[in-house]
Design goal:
It is a single chain. By secondary structure, the chain is mainly alpha-helical. The chain has 2 domains: about 5-140, no CATH class; about 175-270, Cytochrome c-like domain (Cytochrome Bc1 Complex, Chain D, domain 2, Orthogonal Bundle). Helices cover about 55% and strands about 0% of the residues. It has helices at about 5-30, 35-60, 70, 75-80, 110-135, 140-160, 175-190, 190-195, 215-225, 240-255, and strands at about 210, 270. Bound molecules: heme C. Heme C (HEC) binds next to helix 7, helix 8, helix 9 and helix 10.
């Protein structure tokens, strides 16, 4: 194998390796599955090394009259990679100086070392292009922004799922969808004790100005959530998610002042809403 051929091989080897890995950086940046990219990269690398070894062996074989090298592919590969001079020929490359009996061999720089050296230079170019020319170099900054974006998205989802709705944060939601959802929850779960129109039965009248546990969306939500087990009002937090409890509480607010068919007499204390919306 001629020297030129060898260098070309080495060059192709490293170009492929580096393109392969620069690909990896580019793709992870774009948010592809890292695992997948790693696997592909590994397969390509291993394949390439295998092909390279195979070629090296074929080329060595040509110069190998006795078939010695072919017997040991690894040996031939190592030889190709280190370009070391065999022991019996060391005399030829011995320097002519002598330091107290210590002599020096004029070995050439092994190819593997050069591969690494030129490889790092090549890698730096690819790296620069990927991160500073194509990308803006703010790798951490971008990661941070992505994470913040992701967190904001998750928060939005949590808000929509009602995870943040509790007796402190609950608000009266007066839109058609919420009120009709609340009405549905009410007719499914509550009418047995509070009557169809909220006029009361086993449970108190929910349409008047008198509340045992206080009126207003927050108190109503709290009673629905925790219940008053001792008095026959169960806790609903295991059966209704927070947004449903908010909906039914909002629905109860809208019942205020309506005229039930057979209203139960007022129980509890007079409750005056401070603002009409809360
Ligand atoms: C098994 C009967 C029963 C069911 C079903 C029931 N409640 Fe009650 N509820 C009661 C009783 C009894 C009380 C009164 C508790 C007390 O005296 O402290 C009450 C009280 C309440 C209060 C507080 C009233 C006040 O004056 O402070 C609200 C609000 C309420 N219920 C809403 C609901 C909602 C909403 C549902 C359906 C999701 C529901 N209840 C289902 C029996 C029931």
């Amino acid at each position: 194998m001629k020297q030129v051929n060898k260098n070309i091989f080495a060059f192709i080897f490293f170009i492929t390796l580096l393109l392969n890995y620069s690909d990896l950086f580019a793709e992870t940046n774009a948010g592809y599955d890292l695992n997948y990219v790693m696997k592909i990269s590994l397969i390509v690398t291993v394949l390439f090394i295998a092909i390279l070894m195979w070629l090296a062996i074929i080329y060595s074989e040509k110069n190998d009259v006795n078939g010695e090298i072919l017997k040991s592919p690894l040996k031939s590969f190592m030889k190709w990679l280190t370009r070391s001079v065999p022991l019996e020929k060391e005399e030829d490359i011995m320097f002519h100086h002598d330091f107290d009996g210590i002599r020096e061999l004029d070995n050439r720089i092994p190819p593997w070392f050069n591969f690494l050296f030129y490889g790092t230079i090549f890698f730096s170019i690819i790296y620069m292009i990927v991160f500073h020319v194509v990308g803006d170099g703010n790798v951490q900054d971008n990661e941070y922004k992505l994470e913040v974006q992701q967190a904001a998205f998750e928060r939005e989802m949590l808000i929509r799922s009602g995870a943040f709705i509790n007796e402190e944060t609950v608000t009266f939601v007066n839109d058609v969808a919420t009120i009709s959802e609340g009405k549905e929850v009410f007719s499914k779960n509550c009418v047995a004790c509070h009557a169809n129109d909220g006029g009361g039965g086993v449970g108190p009248n929910l349409t008047d100005d008198y509340w045992i546990h206080g009126g207003g969306i927050k108190n109503i939500f709290k009673v629905i959530k925790y219940g008053v087990p001792a008095k026959g009002m169960i806790s609903w937090q295991t059966q209704l998610d927070p947004s449903k409890m908010q909906a039914v509480a909002s629905y109860i607010i809208t019942l205020h002042g309506t005229k039930p068919a057979s209203p139960k007499k007022p129980e509890g204390n007079f409750w005056k809403e401070e603002t009409t919306t809360n």
